[in-house]
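Pasting as-is:
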Amino acid sequence: MINEMKQAQPPLEFIPPALNPLVLQIVQQVLPLKLRFSTPIAQIEADNVESLVDLYRQFQEHKIRFLMAFRHPNVDDPLCMAYLLSRLVPKVAQQQGISLQHPIHAHFIYDRGIPLWAGEQMGWLYSRLGGTPIHRGKSDWRGLRSARDLFVNGQLPMAAAPEGATNGHNEVISPLEPGIAQLGFWCVEDLLKAGRSEQVLIVPVGIKYYYVESPWNSLEKLLSELETDSGLSVDQEHSEFPHEESELDDSTQTHSINHSQDSTLKSQKLLYRRLYRLSEHLLGLMEEFYTRFYHQ
């Protein structure tokens, strides 16, 4: 039975950040287990960690305030960032003989809507980890004031995803929301008003995922199932694809490749042609359906 909503619901309450060192320590201790058993991530590596080590050193010496603006292709990005800060940064700092104060962590901005689908306990946890919420898609002045204050006065640096949400792409960046840059300007303004001399930095952090093993066989199997389910014949050798000889060949042409590499490239090109043909077929089916049942 469908429960109809009879009245407007009250606005979501603001969840103030309330960093709890004990909760943070517990989360950082169980993080490797979380990554191992609850995510498909096998290993996390990072480049230029030395730069973050130096930034944390300057932050703890009250020379700078900084915000890490990280890419957000996947829902596991926050876990990767947590691993970077709690494991890799201290490791590199120790290798360099640099003593950093613990915890190595960051205040962060999260979508206030997350506790609606992830559970109220997530709001409690994010608060105790130093997170501050923001309502996406509206002017959330209270959330912005909280983030602004943390950027200037928080005991830790800041972290936020300028894209605002995941997009599932390693290489494609979604439109950046202007709030991150605005927080930087506000931080400079507030520091000047307070007579403080810290510099303000926004540090980009890239996140990219790789397959441990090649996924081509699994993709080929899935594509065959989709072709069969949609009534499309599987003609792998002669599937039509526009610009096949120009764009694809130009983009995949390499010199001095061995037979195995050449075979892999041909297989990938064939899968792409089949995917393109399937998408055209499905679009045709949708156009036919709407033409029949939704007359203008």
